[in-house]
Write a structure and sequence with these properties.
Length: about 150
């Protein structure tokens, strides 16, 4: 039995005991055994009398939250950092472009301050969105550093 087939059959079981070949697979595959155990624990909790008889769905849904896998980010931490450095590199290289030199020749240096302010706002906004959308990952990185309590 493959893991895919095991998980499809596990969904269909709705908490009933594993069939013979499923139990054999769970004995040799720790990942599928964990999935079966987690589903069984979630269903046991879900069927507790005080939860099952509740008219309000909120406690029933809240009871299942620990068993739901965390959502995955669409853009990884690494891609955010690489993109940030690409944007920053573009800003640093901007004054070296021929167009920038032509603008400076035509308008003098009056446009450089507003341009620097706009570029500063862009990178600050990017950094703000990055930090606020990755707070949990960044906190984990800081906590796991040796030397920090
Ligand atoms: Zn498996």
């Amino acid at each position: 039995m493959t893991c895919d087939r095991f998980k499809r059959l596990l969904d269909a079981l709705e908490g009933a005991e594993l069939s013979g070949d499923m139990a054999e697979h769970a004995d040799v595959c720790p990942e599928c055994a964990r999935a079966a155990a987690a589903l069984k624990a979630a269903l046991l909790l879900y069927r507790l009398p005080e939860l099952a008889s509740s008219v309000d769905l909120t406690p029933r849904v809240l009871a299942l939250i620990p068993f739901i896998p965390a959502p995955r980010r669409i853009v990884s931490l690494r891609d955010w950092i690489v993109s940030g450095f690409v944007i920053l590199g573009g800003m640093v290289l901007l004054p070296l472009m021929a167009t920038f030199g032509a603008l400076r020749d035509a308008y003098g240096t009056r446009f450089t301050l507003p341009l620097a302010i706009v570029l500063g706002l862009v990178i600050t906004t990017y950094a703000g969105v990055f930090v606020s959308s990755h707070q949990d990952e960044l906190a984990r990185l800081v906590k796991s550093r040796p030397g920090h309590a």
